[in-house]
Amino acid sequence: MPEAVFRFYAELNDFLPAARQQAAFAHAWHGPAAVKDVLEALGVPHPEIDIILVNGQSVGFEHVLGDGDQVSVYPVFEALDVTPLVRLRPRPLRETRFVLDVHLGRLATYLRMLGFDALWQHAWDDALLAGCSHDEQRLLLTRDRGLLKRRQVTRGYCVRAARPCEQLLEVLARFDLGGQARPFTRCTLCNGMLAQIEREAARGAVPPGVAERFDKFTRCEACGRVYWPGSHYARMRRLAEEVLESVRGQG
After folding, report:
1. Which residue in 178, 195, 204, 251 has its CB near the most CB atoms, within 10 A?
2. Cα 94 from Cα 36, distance rounded (Å)
3. Is the dihedral of CA 172, 159, 250, 84 positive or negative?
4. What are phi and psi of 201, to 5 degrees?
């Protein structure tokens, strides 16, 4: 069996057992095999990988590994220019669009709150998610490593945190998105864009008395839901401010 020495860097170590983290280790496989197949067999989903060096040379996923190779594997770089190397996915997403799996509904709501295009449906299965990510060039967010290993998925990220607020901080920091946030410009219910409307236009769509107490309203251009700056808005605004302040403070 051929054998090579592998070294994974930065957050790619999250996918490895403790004994293989932050260290070089030998691994054998039944050959011949493309480097992509060997790396995923080690547990690292290919959308998380941006650069592979074999014996110091940058290679693509299709490269066939040989016995005795030295393999270094690096994660996606969003803020670092590594143009001379072979990047294994398209250029970083500067106007990031997401699709999220069924277990990340609250994270989808929070991303929409901050103005990010985030598709989520509770009934979507893995095939639909992978197809949407591929066809619409959306970054797939999931906690399912198996989903990220689907061949269709080229843009994807395995969310490590379990709590929605921590997930939001993680995603914003990982993809350097603090400067792209546009809070309260999208519908948190359906992901549509919000547009300002006059009080009279909102009167029939809000509870009794709301039109008299508030003078600023927005309506979703997709589903028609009307928003106003009530107590729920105030709580969400505080959350948005705290999250963005924390992310920008990490920059």
Report:
1. 178
2. 26
3. negative
4. -70, -25
**Residue 161 and residue 173 in contact, taking contact as beta carbons nearer than 8 Å:** no
CB 247 within 8 Å of CB 173: yes
The length of the chain, given as a count of residues: 251
**Which pLDDT value is given to residue 18?**
96
User: Of 74, 46, 71, whose CA–CA distance to 61 is shortest?
Assistant: 46
Euclidean distance between CA atoms 121 and 158, whole angstroms: 18
- Residue 4 CA to residue 54 CA, distance in Å, equals 10
Per CATH, the architecture of 3-75 is what?
Answer: Roll (3.10)
81 pLDDT above the threshold of 90 = no
Alpha carbons 240 and 110: distance in angstroms, whole number: 8
Question: What is the average pLDDT across 124-141?
Answer: 95
Radius of gyration in angstroms for the set of CA atoms belonging to the chain, rounded to a whole number: 22
Q: Which long-range contacts (CB under 8 A, 24 or more apart) does 233-241 make?
A: 233/184, 236/113, 236/184, 237/183, 237/184, 239/110, 239/113, 239/165, 240/113, 240/114, 240/181, 240/183, 240/184
Rounded CA gap, 140 and 159, in Å? 10
Residue 147: name the closest of 159, 161, 130 by CA: 130
pTM, 2 dp: 0.82
Burial class, 148, CB count within 10 angstroms (exposed 0-12 / middle 13-18 / buried 19+): buried
As a whole number of angstroms, the distance between CA 246 and CA 240 comes to 10
Running DSSP on this structure, what letter comes out for residue 16? Answer: S
pLDDT at 162: 96
In single-letter form, the type of residue at position 249 comes to: G
